[in-house]
Specification:
With 327 residues, this protein is mostly helical. The chain is built from 14 helices and no strands.
Length: 327
């Protein structure tokens, strides 16, 4: 690898953390830090901490089951305990880089289940697009059921637009004839899972992911109460999915900074900025810490089987980029 390429990779790895630091610095510069500390001190941590521990474990098991179902739907069954180990190990990788986490799953499935890396990546792409459509519909449902009370109308339009966008993307990839300059791409192993998908596969993943994200709404409903906020459940059903969309933007690692900014914007009518920022910081910190513990436990197990997991991911990506360049 050339020096220039190493420098580019280093910048790509550092830039998200710089962006996160800049966003957090801006947010903290706008508040009274004494009131922020006071909000943390007054928070009912005896409620919040057990709540976070229970829900992180619930999310871990639900997401493992969702990934287990994904591979089964596409004809690559793997037992639940194995997927639990793979998903647990990739928690730690996702803290460093979201793509690295997905790459870890694909590498393991190639090495021990014979699923080609590109096909596995395509399955995970399909999974994430269907998931995004589900989050968007959840936000629409929350707005409608809440009667729009206390929620800006543009949230409804944005959510509907995102739902249509993600489904249009799948329809295009699924039914577009492989002709012209798109011929090679549409016939690639990466797109194959989308073109093989059926209504049963789509609905299976769609409703599983909606169920997964509904548990986040439940968590926030009780979590905000630990910070002396009262936000209606249906209002949270509309707002939490939009916060997820903002947090998933590829700007910062783990949504650090972007989640805080989104929560400050959407929860601003329910509490002070200092209190909302205290909640959002504790939310991100608790998820990072608890998922890192799970990740460390399972990473040790998986690295016994794949000693250089990060290196394997890098080699697979480099191989794919060479194949693309030679196409």
């Amino acid at each position: 690898m050339s020096t220039d390429n190493r420098a580019i990779i280093a910048v790509k790895r550092i830039a998200p953390w710089v962006a996160a630091a800049a966003i957090l610095w801006f947010l903290f510069s706008r508040i009274d830090r004494g009131l922020f500390i006071d909000s943390l001190a007054r928070a009912e941590l005896s409620i919040y901490i057990p709540l976070a521990v229970v829900f992180v474990l619930v999310w871990f098991f639900i997401e493992t089951y969702n990934l287990h179902s994904l591979y089964r739907f596409f004809g690559h069954p793997v037992n639940f305990s194995t997927m639990l180990k793979v998903r647990g190990a990739t928690f730690l990788l996702m803290i460093v880089n979201y793509g690295l986490g997905a790459g870890g799953i694909a590498v393991y499935m190639k090495k021990f289940r014979g699923v080609p890396f590109l096909r596995s990546s395509g399955m995970l792409f399909f999974y994430m697009v269907v998931e995004s459509a589900g989050i968007a519909l959840l936000a629409v449902a929350g707005y409608v059921l809440a009667g729009g009370s206390g929620i800006q109308d543009w949230i409804l339009y944005l959510s509907m637009g995102l739902f249509l966008f993600y489904n249009s993307e799948l329809v295009f990839l699924r039914y577009m004839p492989p002709v012209g300059f798109l011929k090679k791409f549409l016939r690639s192993s990466f797109v194959a899972p989308v073109r093989e998908s059926t209504a049963r596969i789509y609905s299976g993943i769609f409703f599983q992911r909606i169920g997964y994200f509904l548990t986040f709404v439940v968590f926030f409903y009780f979590g905000v109460q630990a910070f002396h906020m009262q936000i209606p459940f249906l209002t949270l059903t509309a707002l939490v999915p939009i916060i997820f969309f903002v947090g998933n933007l590829p700007i910062t690692p783990f949504g650090l900074g972007t989640i805080q900014a989104a929560m400050l914007f959407f929860f601003r009518t329910y509490s002070s900025e200092e209190n909302i920022l205290a909640l959002s910081i504790l939310y991100t910190a608790s998820l990072l810490f608890l998922r890192a513990l799970i990740g460390l436990y399972y990473l040790k197990k998986i690295t016994d089987e794949v000693p250089d997991l990060a290196g394997e991911i890098a080699r697979e990506k480099e191989l794919l980029s060479r194949e693309s360049a030679g196409a």
